[in-house]
Amino acid sequence: MSAARPGLRRLRSAAGSGGSQTQGRPGVPRQSRRRKSVAIAYEAGQGEGAEPRRARWEPPRWREQLQHIRDMRSSRDAPVDEMGVQTCYDSSAPPEVMRYQVLLALMLSSQTKDQVTSAAMLRLRRRGLSVDSVLQMDDETLGQIIYPVGFWRNKVKYIKQTTAILKQKYGGDIPSTVEELVQLPGVGPKMAHLAMHIAWDSVAGIAVDTHVHRISNRLKWVKKETKSPEETRVALEEWLPRDLWKEINWLLVGFGQQTCLPVKPRCSQCLNQDICPAATRL
Ligand code: SF4
């Protein structure tokens, strides 16, 4: 599993690509200087005689629960902190190579422990990990290097396909939008959002993996039970303040690795045990 973490801004600054993703792009037409007339709709609760604005739903006591999780994560000693994707790329490589390595580490990390992903990335990097080096590598060699990551045979196929697309369509870099990233073979929404956080230092949405999905349901941070990480992402984005979207992945992944385990969570050691709806049933 993987998480975004502060300190990775160098990727973007090294790339010289701060600011809006579309800023300065060739082909993006300049806005007309003529002022357009803009219709302004009155929000409910603002106009005379309007209905009072209804408070947006949010889970009771979530701020308290979140602070407890921050406290429990303060030592930053979970596997994700030491071996997560954000630790797997070569920070001295050119920016587009770093971004490619981030994407590759994310692809390897699915259904795979952080330790195994980290070791596979180290083996790949020893051979000079770049778009060109992977395209020159035969499938068997790539498989031998990344083994034993989960579903390694499928990942060999997806990595080769994705790398070829990056070379042909993106000049060897990775795309800078979630919409384009999820079009790549073997890249799902969680990976796409993490790639945006880590590689582009841009937050387009919450990266929800199995830990974030499980814990959000246990704490009832979703209005009604969700069945998939993607459903959880949508439910969380409805109420969680945007400035927490990046941090929440890192917090909950490590919390899920150390305390709120999938099976037999350590509720007796959890600061949320008195305010967690799931504590007594597990
Ligand atoms: S009390 Fe138990 S189920 Fe609730 S957040 Fe803590 S570890 Fe998870």
TrEMBL record:
A Gene Ontology biological process term: base-excision repair, AP site formation
GO terms for MF: 4 iron, 4 sulfur cluster binding; class I DNA-(apurinic or apyrimidinic site) endonuclease activity; DNA binding; metal ion binding; oxidized pyrimidine nucleobase lesion DNA N-glycosylase activity
GO cellular-component term (any): mitochondrion
Keywords: 4Fe-4S, DNA damage, DNA repair, Endonuclease, Glycosidase, Hydrolase, Iron, Iron-sulfur, Lyase, Metal-binding, Mitochondrion, Nuclease, Nucleus, Transit peptide
InterPro entries per UniProt: DNA_glycosylase, Endonuclease-III-like_CS2, Endonuclease3_FeS-loop_motif, Endouclease-III_FeS-bd_BS, HhH-GPD_domain, HhH_base_excis_C, HhH_motif, NTH1
Pfam families: HHH, HhH-GPD
Localisation: Nucleus; Mitochondrion
CC cofactor: [4Fe-4S] cluster
Catalytic activities: 2'-deoxyribonucleotide-(2'-deoxyribose 5'-phosphate)-2'-deoxyribonucleotide-DNA = a 3'-end 2'-deoxyribonucleotide-(2,3-dehydro-2,3-deoxyribose 5'-phosphate)-DNA + a 5'-end 5'-phospho-2'-deoxyribonucleoside-DNA + H(+)
Basic and acidic residues composition-biased segments: 50-60
Record EC number: 3.2.2.-, 4.2.99.18
CDD domains: ENDO3c
Residues covered by region (Disordered): 1-60
Domain of life: Eukaryota
Domain HhH-GPD: 108-258
Function: Bifunctional DNA N-glycosylase with associated apurinic/apyrimidinic (AP) lyase function that catalyzes the first step in base excision repair (BER), the primary repair pathway for the repair of oxidative DNA damage. The DNA N-glycosylase activity releases the damaged DNA base from DNA by cleaving the N-glycosidic bond, leaving an AP site. The AP lyase activity cleaves the phosphodiester bond 3' to the AP site by a beta-elimination. Primarily recognizes and repairs oxidative base damage of pyrimidines.
Family: Belongs to the Nth/MutY family.
Protein name: Endonuclease III-like protein 1
